[in-house]
Design brief:
- The chain is α/β, with parallel strands linked by helices and 223 residues long.
- It is 35% helix and 17% strand.
- The chain is globular, with a radius of gyration of 16 Å.
Length: 223
């Protein structure tokens, strides 16, 4: 059986993987769902950047002495897991990016983002923190799911979007595949994945697939 490390995207903590993690564990797998620094609902951390979050994942992999991990990053965490895997490729067996951002060495999320998204982030930033988006912005429309999601989301440090990723190139030697949500609503996650040459699976649901389609997402993670 495999060890999965599931890393959540912006505004989310490890809690967002609850339904998928339960399904993976029921199938006999070990699952870790870390919450990245500053996203635990505690003291706001505008000082936190992408590098801090990559450090979080590297520390987890080293502390738990994990190898052959299936390292999964959702959304913004695509940048996080690729940077972490680049630093400790010997601990990663496979990368899976779920509707995730990805770019080359030196690229930040701001560099990669479509202009409307970047303008939205700027308009909604105060004191170094990006305000929580409405659930529908992350593809959640069901009232019960909105009620579960809304109180758990926390502001995202703006620096995480501005800080460039640091890659040596070692991550490119690791097996990687992408799962993209369709329709894409103007976000080029599938385009980037195909440009990198990764296999791509599509899932017909909103961006927060771990909440809106946990059965389908789990099946694709286990593919």
């Amino acid at each position: 059986m495999s060890t999965f490390v599931l890393v959540a995207g912006a505004w989310h903590g490890g809690w967002c993987w609850t339904y998928v993690a339960d399904r993976l564990r029921a199938a006999g797998h070990r699952v870790l769902t870390p919450t990245l620094t500053g996203l635990d609902g505690g003291e706001p951390r505008p000082d936190v950047g992408l590098g801090t979050h990559a450090d979080d994942v590297v520390t987890l992999l080293n502390t738990e002495d994990l190898t052959e991990v299936v390292l999964v990053g959702h959304s913004y965490a695509g940048l996080v897991v690729r940077q972490a895997a680049d630093r400790v490729p010997e601990r990663v067996g496979h990368l899976i990016l779920v509707d995730a951002w990805a770019g080359p060495d030196g690229a930040s999320m701001d560099d990669l983002a479509p202009e409307p998204f970047r303008r939205w982030a700027d308009r909604n930033t105060a004191d170094g923190l990006i305000a929580v988006p409405p659930p529908r912005m992350v593809g959640v429309d069901d009232p019960e799911q909105i009620a579960w999601l809304t109180p758990r989301l926390v502001p995202q440090p703006r620096r995480t979007f501005a800080e460039p990723t640091v890659l040596t190139g070692r991550v490119e030697a690791l097996p990687c595949r992408a799962i993209v949500c369709v329709p894409d609503n103007g976000m080029p996650f599938g385009t980037w994945a195909r440009e990198f040459g990764w296999p791509v699976d599509e899932i017909g649901t909103g961006h927060d697939a771990m909440l809106t389609a946990p059965d389908e997402l789990t099946a694709l993670l286990l593919k």
